[in-house]
Amino acid sequence: MIYLVTGGSGFIGSHLIEQLLRNGHSVINIDNFDDFYSYQIKIKNTLESIGKNSDFKFTNKEDDIQRLISLSHSDHYTLYYQDIRDKKGLENVFKNHSIDMVIHLAALAGVRPSIERPLEYEEVNVRGSMNLWELCKEFNINKFICASSSSVYGNNEKTPFSETDNVDNPISPYAATKKCGEILGHVYHNLYSIDMIQLRFFTVYGPRQRPDLAIHKFTKLIYEGSEIPFYGDGDTARDYTYIDDIIDGIIKSIIYLENNSGVYEIINLGESQVITLTEMVATIEKVLQMTAIKKNLPMQPGDVTKTNADITKAKDLISYKPDTDFQNGIKKFVEWFLRKRH
Predict the structure, then answer these.
(1) 174 classed as catalytic
(2) What distance in Å separates the CA atoms of residue 318 and residue 249, rounded to the nearest whole number?
(3) β-bridge partners, 147
(4) 341, 308, 336, 311: which is closest to 323 by C-alpha?
(5) Which residue ranges does the record assign to the NAD(P)-binding domain (predicted)?
(6) CA of 280: how far to CAs of 151, 237, 239, 288, in Å?
(7) What domains sit in the chain, N to C, each tagged with a CATH number?
(8) 325: which DSSP letter?
(9) Measured between alpha carbons, how far is residue 162 from residues 21, 87, 111, 158, 272 in Å?
(10) Which among 242, 308, 240 has a CA at the least distance from the CA of 280?
(11) For the CA atoms of 242, 148, 81, 5, what is the dihedral angle to 10 degrees?
């Protein structure tokens, strides 16, 4: 099979591509190496995902990405330096390949930055997704997996969060764009028979996690002896999901889509284990054997108080079975973090 993966040089995307290649498939990776965080991290992700841990010499962004494209190209892997907002550029990719399925992970992420740059989030997350659906329509590609987010639940009072819950009350532009993606995805499913699964990811962590996300940021700051920003009273809680379990869920969604037609499904992918901010910091402290220096701060606008996935549907529909508890996941993450430091 030939899979087009958007955002394939990012955290989740690079792990997915690594697994798809390992399973004997061909992959087209579209990534714009956005400056949201260092492009150098994404280059390292890309090389690791294709099994080329070469000693890459960084010079400047444009030259480095062009070298990466040449270095990474093979019969089973092609990288495009491409923004999903550019429909013409995307069209060339679709013309050059016979694509069996699109797995759309690319997005502008982050709740707090979306409050500062809402229009840009709409351009990437809504218009960018529509560009892909338009091209799927034009090129008769009728299998599509899309990354949604647990943030669509907002401050849902009922726990655990179920796919049948009302999600009409997002509390950040990022969450609203993800909800829009689910609605517009259904439109393209209904009008053009594009089989689709929308996966609501619950706070993914693990090796290659983005440096701005809490677990990575806190681990780094605690290790360096710096203050960590500690928002609220520590009772905010997340359903943290280890990257291997997320990849397992995506692969099983791919298999389900390939074997079924007339599909439009929204599926939670979480661990179904809720960890408070206080517990999260304590777990990192224990694994690092260091004590955090906390800088107490008020709750941030747009942050939800709790996430908790009901994964009954995922278990029943795609045989999803997460098996990495938080303590083991943090241990694996810290081992990766320390290995990268030395």
Answers:
(1) yes
(2) 8
(3) 199
(4) 311
(5) 4-332
(6) 19, 9, 11, 12
(7) 2-203+243-270+308-323 (3.40.50.720)
(8) -
(9) 32, 34, 21, 9, 11
(10) 240
(11) 70
- For residue 201, give the nearest of 282, 105, 275, 70 by alpha carbon: 105
Q: What is the DSSP letter of 123?
A: I
Alpha-carbon distance of 317 to 311, in angstroms, equals 10
Provide CB contacts within 8 A for 127, sequence distance 6+.
85
Q: What's the whole-model pTM score?
A: 0.96
Count the neighbouring beta carbons within 10 Å of the beta carbon of residue 342: 4
Catalytic option among 39, 77, 153, 174 = 174
**Which of 155, 177, 153, 180 lies closest to 167 in space, CA to CA?**
153
**Token pair for 285:** 């402290």
Please report where in the chains the tokens 């989030």 appear, as a residue: 121
**Burial classification of residue 23, based on how many CB atoms lie within 10 Å of its CB (0-12 exposed, 13-18 middle, 19 or more buried):** exposed
- pLDDT tens digits, one per residue of 277-325: 999 999 999 999 999 999 999 988 877 889 999 999 999 999 999 999 9
Residue 312 CA to residue 204 CA, distance in Å, equals: 19
72-81: b (≥16 Cβ within 10 Å) or e: beeeebbbbb
- CA pair distance 151, 140, nearest whole angstrom: 31
pLDDT single digits (tens) 31-63: 999 999 999 999 999 999 999 977 899 999 999
Q: What is the pLDDT of residues 88-100, one digit of tens each?
A: 999 999 999 999 9
